[in-house]
């Protein structure tokens, strides 16, 4: 019994150590990415973007892809934005291009990719997101020209005050406060727990998987890519949270192309997104959306493996990349962990208060109802 407990304890310590190494490497870049994400959220107007995406042509698809790549939205949080863009007049091609290019990249995940996998992998990942977005958008323009049944124009909320009115004039200070609130509040709340989950999975892979296991039993890069595709499509993995998993798999022998398949197909798809695409844009758009992801993920993964300079070094890092001092990594990691913990705890508190309020309302309602129509008859 003591041997089992010792093994479990050592395993937990090993996973925590490996996870910490991955997280600390990403942390400074995540903070920089969060700041850039807040700037984009506050100072780039979704309403202005929608004006460029109305036509069913290549230019609209190209603009949607370029607009989507830097935005820090995961495959779930991008859904409301996509719905607003489409109902504000964006074509199906532009909508699908935005829907694929946005969750597969983002300034936060771009910088985090650089931190774990180096500049070559980072540039190629951006290029792969671009290709996936353009390919899906052009395919939709060719094969799905039918208008959606419901395309009522919706008002777009202001990122500073949340109002839906048309005219907004906010001071620079108000915009900066909104930027900070988004960068270290809403964005951390949206992706924080997924980054933690991805980091823990990456740490577990790094600890448990022997160095030669993948190359011995799954040596074919094509089979590795197909396995990554099958595993990633139904699951939710955000663009940043998938990075520690990809880095750990590469260190254990998986091909860079197979890791690229995971980084494209994982963030772009999950069961919720597939359902919403089918409901909002139609089944034909869903088929185009899923087919585009499968084709581009496998194609870009296969092409990446052909590049002579695609493979990271044995440590999982690329040679020649900038390294933050260890103290900076530790401070950044502790800061982000604190922000994530705060958001998780505050979310639990809010849900608890909401449930308590609902329970009190039900009790008050039932007591009010029981007090009516059941009074004893008075004697005259």
Automatic annotation (TrEMBL):
Residues 360-380 are annotated as: Disordered. It is found in: Cell membrane. One of its GO terms (cellular component) is plasma membrane. Pfam families: ArsP_1. The keyword Mitochondrion does not apply. It comes from the Bacteria. This is SO_0444 family Cu/Zn efflux transporter. It comes from candidate division WOR-3 bacterium.
């Amino acid at each position: 019994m003591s041997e089992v407990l010792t093994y479990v304890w050592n395993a937990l310590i090993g996973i925590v150590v490996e996870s910490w190494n991955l997280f600390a490497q990403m942390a400074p870049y995540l903070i920089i990415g969060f700041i850039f994400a807040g700037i984009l959220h506050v100072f780039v107007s979704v309403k202005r973007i929608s004006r460029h995406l109305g036509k069913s042509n290549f230019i609209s698809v190209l603009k949607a892809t370029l607009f989507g790549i830097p935005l820090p939205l995961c495959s779930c949080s991008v859904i409301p934005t996509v719905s607003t863009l489409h109902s504000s007049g964006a074509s199906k091609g532009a909508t699908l291009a935005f829907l694929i290019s946005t969750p597969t990249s983002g300034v936060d995940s771009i910088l985090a990719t650089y931190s774990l996998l180096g500049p070559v992998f980072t540039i190629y990942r951006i290029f792969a997101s671009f290709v996936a977005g353009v390919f899906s958008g052009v395919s939709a323009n060719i094969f799905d020209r039918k208008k959606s049944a419901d395309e009522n124009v919706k008002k777009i909320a202001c990122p500073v005050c949340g109002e839906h009115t048309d005219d907004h004039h906010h001071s620079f200070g108000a915009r900066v406060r909104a930027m900070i609130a988004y960068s270290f509040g809403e964005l951390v709340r949206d992706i924080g727990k997924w980054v933690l989950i991805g980091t823990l999975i990456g740490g577990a892979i790094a600890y448990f998987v022997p160095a030669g296991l993948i190359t011995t039993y799954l040596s074919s890069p094509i089979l590795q890519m197909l396995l990554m595709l099958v595993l990633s499509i139904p699951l939710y993995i955000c663009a940043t949270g998938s990075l520690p998993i990809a880095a750990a798999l590469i260190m254990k022998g998986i091909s860079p192309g197979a890791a690229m398949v995971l980084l494209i197909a994982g963030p772009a798809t999950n069961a919720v997104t597939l359902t919403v695409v089918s409901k909002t844009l139609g089944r034909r758009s869903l088929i185009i959306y899923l087919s585009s992801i499968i084709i581009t993920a496998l194609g870009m993964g296969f092409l990446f493996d052909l590049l002579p300079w695609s493979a990271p070094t044995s440590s999982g890092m690329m040679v020649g990349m900038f390294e933050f001092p260890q103290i900076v990594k530790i401070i950044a990691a502790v800061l982000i962990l604190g922000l994530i913990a705060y958001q998780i705890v505050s979310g639990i508190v809010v849900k608890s208060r909401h449930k308590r309020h609902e329970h009190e309302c039900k009790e008050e309602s039932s007591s009010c109802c029981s007090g009516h129509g059941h009074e004893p008859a008075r004697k005259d």
